[in-house]
Every structure is written in C-alpha cells, then in structure tokens.
TrEMBL record:
SUPFAM superfamilies: ATPase domain of HSP90 chaperone/DNA topoisomerase II/histidine kinase
Signal peptide range in chain numbering: none
The entry's keywords: ATP-binding, Kinase, Membrane, Nucleotide-binding, Transferase, Transmembrane, Transmembrane helix, Two-component regulatory system
Gene Ontology BP, a term: phosphorelay signal transduction system
Alphabetical list of SMART domains matching this protein: HATPase_c (SM00387)
UniProt name for this protein: ATP-binding protein
Native source species: Microbacterium protaetiae
GO molecular function: ATP binding; kinase activity
Gene3D superfamilies to which the protein is assigned, alphabetical: Histidine kinase-like ATPase, C-terminal domain (3.30.565.10)
Amino acid sequence: MPVTADTAQAALDAAWQRVPRSREAVARVGAFTRTRVERILSLVIAVGCAVLGAQGLLTALNTSSERPEWRSAMALTVFIPLGLMLLACVVGRFQRLLAAVFVVVYTAALVIWPVAAAGAPSSPEVEPWIFFLLNVATVASVLAFPLPWQVVCTAVIPVLWGLARLVQSGFDPRFAIPVVLDVSFALILGGILVALGWMLRSVATNVDTARAQAVASYAAAAAVDATEQERVAVGALMHDSVLAALLAVERAHTERERGLAVGMAREALTRLANAERDAGMGSEAPVDAETIAREIEVSTAELGHTLRVERTQIDGIRLPGVVARALALAAAQAIANAIQHADAAGLRVTVHGEHDPARVAVRVIDTGPGFDPDAVPADRLGIRASIHARVAAVGGRARVSSGADGTRVTLEWADTA
C-alpha cells in the first residue's frame, strides 16, 4: 500500500505538533531559529543605534556644523527616519523597510553635507554630528539588505564620508590623517558587524534546516508506519470477517445456521466498509478482564462452535478496552484456525489473570495434528497479522507453538505503567 500525499501531510502535521512550542521547551531544544535571531538582532541594533543616535543628536544641538539655513533641515531629515527605525526595531514590525529608508536618507545626506557645511567653521579635532551616525547606517544595512548589499554599504558609506569631509574642508592637509583614521575605523567596525550578522543568521538557518529535515524524516517514517499498520489492520479485518463467514456458511445445515451465516456475512461487509473506524479496535476506557472471556465465547458461537472459556484469578483485573478487544480478536482468530485446520479437536481456552501489576494471559489450545509456524507463507495473515501484529500493537506478546500433540497460542499483556 503506497504512502499517499494525504497520509504524508497528516504525518508531517503531527510531527510539527510534537516540536516544543513553549519558551521553556524552546530553550531546552535550542533557541537559534531564524525568526528569533532576527528579533534579537533588531533589538541589539536598536540599543546600539539609540546610543550613537543620542550622541549625534546632542552634538547637533550643541554645535553648528552646517550653515544656519541648512542646519534644521539636515538634522530633521536624518533623525526622523532614525527615530522611526528605532521604534520599528522595538515594536518588531517594518524594521527592514525603515532601516532601508534610513540608509538611503543618510547616504543622500552625506552627498549633500559638503554643500550644507560649506563655509561653516570646522576643526580636525571636532567631529560633526553626522559622523556619529556613520556606523548606525552600516548596521542598519545589516538589518535591511541581503549580504552583498551589506558589504557594498559597509565599504561605500565610510569612503563617502571621507570624501565629504575632505570636500567640506577644502582638502585641507590637516584633515587628511583624521579622515583616514575615521574611514579605517568605520570600515573595520562595519566589517565586524556585517560578519556577526551573517554568522548568526547562518547558524540560525542551518539549525532551522536541520530541524525541518528531522521533522520531515519523522513524518516520512510515521507515514510509512501508519500505512503499514493500516494494511495489517485491514488485512486482519478481512481475514477475520471473511474466514468466519465462510466457515459459518460451510457448517450451515439448518435454517438457523444459514440465517447466522447470512448475518455474519452482512457484518463482514459492514466491517470492511468501516475498516478505518474499526482499525482502532476500541477505546482506552478500562474494562474488566471478564470482557475478554465473554467476547471470546460470543466469537466462538458465531463460528458455529460452543465453548466455555475457563477463567482463573481475573476478578478485579481491569485493562484498557483497546487491549481487551485486541486479545479477544486475536484469540478468536486462533480459535478459527483451530476449527478450520484441527476440526476443533480438544479445543480449550483459558483466561488467566495476575494482580500487582495487572497481567492477563489468554491461551488457546487444541490437540490437532499441528503445523510448522515457520513454514507459513508470508502472504498468509491469519497468524502474522491477526494474532502477532494485533497483540503487539497494544503492547502485548503472542507466542505460537505447535507439534504433533497439538497447537498452543498464548497471548499475554502486562500493565507496565
């Protein structure tokens, strides 16, 4: 049975639901996801830019680097986009857009600045306010642009500042060394910031990729497992229902037996039509172990054979309904095999219980000619699916031993909680 797209998608959704979502769980598994790294970067950048921006704003208020007619316009043009960018970083929305706007506005301000500052007093020892925002623009590019454009901004903006400073000073030789130092420091610091941003994002992306691959692998395995379980369950259901109906038909000699065979055939068709619903074999609600014995007796009667199940030490033992249903169905299959292949010779069934912890063992014994369990073909589901797989699905164990003196099928389940 192939893995369908719906099965794979359902398994993938279930796998993602198993990924921890709470803050504590995320901290245990690892917090380096791309979303969280972007959030951390925006907050750290906001703090650093706020410090440098405050320094630049105080300098702009206390000094006059530009001519009076340019001073207010230049400051408002630069500091308003900067303030909006900081607010967006704190809020966590539109930070990339506003960071890009600030980078563009600041670059344009650097180009215009020599004109705005022409004729204004300047000294190599006193930096204008626009200088303090140099690396603010560099780190804003880390927030706004892909890596290639980050590198371009990191290289171009400091060089553009150096040219603007030299043009504003009229290429005064006294400004040469300070400008070279300013540009060098800005390039080094900008390169470090770009490298840190790239490293953190790469780690986060790799972790996200590994996490997604792990979930996809789990989903693929879960889909295959679910498909196999469905195949086994449907195969076992077909085997149980159809075989029981055929046996009833074969043994029907009276009107009552024929009516019983018709009812069993109708039930088999109904169960096949509702195979998906019946695959779960019951609920987890606890039931008495007596339920197993009663269901076995009913199933045996439907096969046209009267049987009294022997009960020993089962009073007070309770087990999940799905477990009781699985044991009863597996025992019914063993009984059907005994009726079909051993003509029910010496057929005997016992349900034995033990307390603390709760244990239940169902034994189906006959004195027929026996068979070789290892010689059963792989496509025969009577033992492999209807007995072994069914009991194993609920955490139990099935053993089949057969020889010249008969066959013994033992079904065991123990409460390991």
